[in-house]
Fold this protein.
Amino acid sequence: MNSQHTDIAIIGAGPAGATMAALLADRGWHVTVLERSHFPRFAVGESLLPRCMDALDAAGMLHVVEDAGYQIKRGVTFTENDHDTSFTFDDQFTPGWSWTWQVLRADFDHRLALEAERRGATLRFGQTVESVDFTTPGAPRLAVVADDGTRTDLAARFVCDASGAARVLPRLLSLDRPGSAPSRGALFTHVTDRIDAPDYQRDRIVIGIHPEQPDVWYWLIGLAGGRASVGMIGPPEWIHGADGTPAERLRHFVGQEPRLARLLASADFDSRVGQTENYAYDIATLHGPDYALLGNAAGFVDPIFSSGVTIALESALRAVDPVDTQLRGAAVDWDAQFEAPIRAGQRVFTSFIGAWYRGALKHVLFNPAPDPAIRTMLSSILAGYVWDTDNPYVARPERRLDTLCRLCAPSS
Ligand SMILES: Cc1cc2nc3c(=O)[nH]c(=O)nc-3n(C[C@H](O)[C@H](O)[C@H](O)COP(=O)(O)OP(=O)(O)OC[C@H]3O[C@@H](n4cnc5c(N)ncnc54)[C@H](O)[C@@H]3O)c2cc1C
């Protein structure tokens, strides 16, 4: 058993962990990131939001991804029975970025991790955090096991959990709460898309609704180099209960959605198909005396609005000052500085996700005669500007959205 010491231990080197590591290293702290896998590694979640660009810029991370050659993303196209409605980010209520990227996450996450290392953080790959002992206040101890079985007792002053859906601390500390959303499953892969349809705009994520199963939806995210991310979400018994391998099921279901079936008619499904289910969960608290939860470790509802990386980056940015202040011995109002703003952003997305799955949001998005001012407000939500309280759909998301959905509902 090795014994080591660090100021801040970070569990996980995804976007939240790598960004937090870079920012804390900038402040002069000794930061150790424990990452169980080896980078580059596959991760689902290629579609970023324009709000990510502000966060990457604020974290000094933009320059490490801007020459990667990722596919530019300028908007979202929703489609049902080959009928479209598009939102573009150049027509927004909130002043901000009008574009972002559709990234290869293996490369994106690797670049952020390398940047954290360059700025002084210690990154250890192939190291799994098994447990954390918080018995002594101000001196948590992490039990870490390496790929080769070597065990390390890492003493720290503070722990940031950025372990994503693995949510190491919520599970150890019983902070995990079942999500309020019904259980859903996903199938996803990368393809060589061979799309040459003139109506396809590669710079927009396509979200397709199943023609007969309104709670089943698909994504098509164009990547650079003729590749695309293709996936679908639906009730687990529907998605995983059908016959065939995951690859056969995904191809079968893609064939049922008219637009994706047409666009992907010549696609080569040449990569492994991944699957997941029950991905939604809530967390009782996002901080404790010697820890904070970042990114997906702080909760996750649904990928429909591509909000995951945005929340991950934002949570790192919002946690830096409190961690820094606390370790310098001053008092911190964690609720006001960290938990409240992160929950506020999550709440906006959660309201929109709820309206999507109730089937009500569809009528707003496909409204043939939309109010132009409201459309710009919705564009800003789709762009991830969920902390701009001047936007009425941010300030009072449930109430405003409910009213809008009622106004746009088809008369029976
Ligand atoms: C089907 C699906 C589609 C999605 N699509 C999108 C999308 O288009 N856009 C978007 O923004 N988001 C999307 N998301 C969400 C997005 O993937 C996540 O929100 C994002 O990756 C969260 O970043 P993170 O840094 O919190 O965690 P992660 O990126 O998950 O990183 C966590 C890291 O922690 C490591 N780890 C885990 N356990 C341990 C341990 N015990 N010890 C050490 N290391 C550990 C893991 O190996 C991993 O590298 C999607 C999610 C799903 C399920």
Residues 2 and 123 are 17 Å apart (CA to CA). The two ends are 69 Å apart (CA to CA). The chain has three domains: 2-178+280-344, 185-277, 360-408.
